[in-house]
Amino acid sequence: MRSENPTPNPAGGQPDFRADFAGHCKRWRGALFAWPDGRVAAAQDAELLAQLAEVNAAWQDFRGHLETVLGQPPSSASFQSALAQIESASPELVNQSDAAVRLLEAEASQKVARLRWIQAAFLACALLLLAGGAWMVGSPCSIH
Predict the structure, then answer these.
(1) Lower CB count within 10 Å: N or C terminus of the chain?
(2) If DSSP codes are grouped into helix, strand and coil, which group holds residue 6?
């Protein structure tokens, strides 16, 4: 992920994307850990919680390789090994994250559908009250 405004390299030359990459990692980690903690809408679905746990496990492994890439010089063997691991693990992490997002989307769609039914019921009740009030006001009142 390249940032639109990369951090300038203090030595001049090419911009330093490592600082931007570290920022992206920090934001991803914050988003990932927000789900199970309930800071984002609390997930009640066991399948969703299991998927988030899988994403978290994959992220922990992926993060270790990212930290190696960020901390080692590009010419080192550990940098090259971690980079290869990142390239091979990225598609799986993306697929797991996509599955979690799809489950979150399905849960949110169910909630929206339920709220629409509730809204329709309130509208029907309001119309019945309005019709009842109009009938009561329009009917002649007999006072003896």
Answers:
(1) C
(2) coil
Q: Is the pTM of this model over 0.70?
A: no
Unique residue bearing structure tokens 């927000």: 34
- Cα–Cα distance for residue pair 44/46, rounded to 1 Å: 6
Average model confidence (pLDDT) across the chain:
79
Record the tokens describing residue 110, joined without a space: 């169910």
Query: Does 128 have pLDDT greater than 60?
Result: yes
The CA-atom distances, in angstroms, between 8 and each of 19, 23, 85 are: 9, 14, 27
Q: Rounded to an integer, what distance in angstroms lies between the CA atom of residue 18 and that of residue 113?
A: 43
DSSP codes of every residue in 23-74: HHHHHHHHHHHHHHHTSSS----HHHHHHHHHHHHHHHHHHHHHHHHHHS-T
